[in-house]
TrEMBL record:
The lineage of its organism: Bacteria, Bacillati, Bacillota, Bacilli, Bacillales. This is YCII-related domain-containing protein.
Amino acid sequence: MQYMITAYDGTDEKAPERRLTAREEHLKSVERRFKQGEHLYGSALLDEHDRLHDGGGLSI
């Protein structure tokens, strides 16, 4: 069974700092899960004008 996860970042003033702090481990985790066949696709979110939405992502 496949799942789609949509995750939004926090919007407080410290959210960008938390995102950067977690980024390296997040990317390693995604790469590991992709190699194991557990992660099929990931993407940043787009806004209503198809521009990159700052603050979230999608994972399948």
